[in-house]
Design goal:
By secondary structure, the chain is an all-alpha fold. Helix 2 (62-92) packs parallel to helix 5. The termini are far apart. The radius of gyration is 20 Å and the shape is globular. It is built from 15 helices and no strands.
C-alpha cells in the first residue's frame, strides 16, 4: 500500500463518520431535541401536512400538487441532501469491504445489525433510500438493507417520543411493538426469499472488494457518484411527490365519523398510508387531526404503522437495488402490519 492509499484508508472513513455525526446533529438530533419540548408542552406538532386545517385534502389539481410538494420539500430537503451525501460516501469513502463484512451475510444477526444502525439516523423513508442504494452497491444483504430502510422511520426514537406526548404513550407502545416486528421480521423474511447463500459478502467476494484501492481519487469518485445518484433519483422522486400531492384527495377522500373500525376501512387506510409520502414524524399530526375529526382508532392505527416506513417514491428510488419480489414482499408486509395495527388499536380501545 503506497502513501496515497494509506492516506485514503484513514482520511476517507474519518470524513465519512464526521459527515454522519455533524449531518445528523444539524439535520435531526438538535432540531428534534427542541421539538420534543414543544410536543410535551402543547401536545401537538402543528397542522397535518395532508389536510392543513381542513376536514379533507384539496381536490385534484396542479395547485394541490405544487402546494404539497413545496410543503413537503421544505420539510425534508436538508435530510435529502444528507441522504444523497451519505449514500454516495458509503460507496466512495469507506474501505470497499467494510459494508460487506458488517452487513453482507444473510441471517437474523445481520438483519438486527441493519435495523440497529438505522435508529440514530431518524430520516424519512425517501431520504434513507439513497443510503440504502449505497449499502446495496457495497454488498449489504437484502435483509440488512431492508431493516435499515424501514428502521430509520418506524423505529425513530424522536417520533416515538412525539407520539407519546401528542397521541398518548399507549399509541407509542403500539408503534414500537409492531415496529420491531416489521423491521426485523420483514428484514429476515427478505433474506429467506432471496435465495442467497448464508456466506454472501464473505471470503472470495470480500477479498476482491478489499483489493480495490482507489487512493485519494476516492474523493473525486464521491463527487461523481453523488452527481450520478442525484440525477437518477431526484427527478423521479419529484414527479411522484407531485403526483401524490395532486391525488391525495383520492387516497383520503373524506375524513369523519363514518370512517369506522371495520376491517374494510382499516385495510383501505393501510394501503393508502403505504403509498403516500410524508416527512419524518408527519404521521403524528395527521393521525391527531383525523382522530379529532372522528375517524375510528382502527384506521388511525393503520396509518400510524404504514405512513412512515415506505412510500411510492421511496419504492421507486430503491427499485434497481432489489429484486421485484423483495419489493412486493416488503409492500405487502407493511400493509399487513398496518392492518394488524388497526385491529390492535380497536381491540386495545386506544
Amino acid at each position: 500500500m503506497n502513501i496515497s492509499q494509506r492516506a485514503n484508508a484513514i482520511l476517507g472513513p474519518v470524513v465519512f463518520f464526521a459527515l454522519v455525526i455533524a449531518g445528523l446533529f444539524y439535520v435531526k438530533w438538535f432540531p428534534y431535541y427542541g421539538k420534543a419540548f414543544v410536543a410535551a408542552a402543547h401536545h401537538s406538532l402543528g397542522q397535518s401536512i395532508l389536510m392543513g386545517g381542513a376536514a379533507s385534502p384539496p381536490a385534484f389539481s396542479w395547485n394541490a400538487a405544487l402546494g404539497y410538494a413545496l410543503a413537503y420539500g421544505n420539510a425534508i430537503w436538508k435530510a435529502m441532501v444528507l441522504g444523497l451525501l451519505l449514500g454516495s460516501a458509503v460507496q466512495a469513502l469507506l474501505p470497499a469491504d467494510w459494508v460487506a463484512r458488517v452487513l453482507g451475510r444473510t441471517g437474523f444477526g445481520t438483519t438486527v445489525a441493519g435495523g440497529l444502525l438505522a435508529i440514530p439516523g431518524m430520516i424519512c423513508t425517501c431520504c434513507a433510500a439513497p443510503v440504502v442504494v449505497g449499502l446495496r452497491q457495497r454488498h449489504a444483504s437484502p435483509g440488512a438493507a431492508t431493516a435499515f430502510w424501514l428502521g430509520n422511520s418506524i423505529l425513530n426514537p424522536a417520533t416515538l417520543v412525539f407520539i407519546g406526548f401528542v397521541l398518548g404513550w399507549n399509541w407509542a407502545a403500539l408503534r414500537l411493538g409492531l415496529g420491531i416486528v416489521m423491521v426485523f421480521g420483514l428484514g429476515y423474511l427478505v433474506d429467506r426469499i432471496t435465495g442467497i447463500s448464508d456466506h454472501e459478502g464473505t471470503d472470495p467476494q470480500l477479498a476482491e472488494l478489499a483489493a480495490r484501492r482507489e487512493g485519494l481519487a476516492a474523493f473525486a469518485r464521491w463527487i461523481t457518484i453523488l452527481a450520478r445518484m442525484t440525477i437518477r433519483l431526484v427527478p423521479e422522486y419529484i414527479v411522484l411527490v407531485l403526483f401524490l400531492g395532486a391525488t391525495r384527495a383520492w387516497l383520503f377522500p373524506h375524513i369523519g365519523p363514518e370512517i369506522g373500525n371495520t376491517l374494510w376501512w382499516i385495510a383501505i387506510f393501510a394501503l393508502a398510508g403505504t403509498l403516500f409520502v410524508i416527512p419524518t414524524a408527519g404521521e403524528v399530526p395527521i393521525v391527531q387531526a383525523m382522530l379529532s375529526l372522528g375517524i375510528g382508532a382502527g384506521p388511525a392505527g393503520a396509518l400510524l404503522m404504514t405512513l412512515p416506513p415506505i412510500s411510492l417514491p421511496s419504492l421507486a428510488m430503491i427499485a434497481p437495488s432489489f429484486r421485484a419480489r423483495v419489493l412486493i414482499v416488503v409492500t405487502v408486509g407493511v400493509i399487513a402490519v398496518g392492518v394488524l395495527g388497526g385491529l390492535l388499536a380497536v381491540g386495545l380501545k386506544l
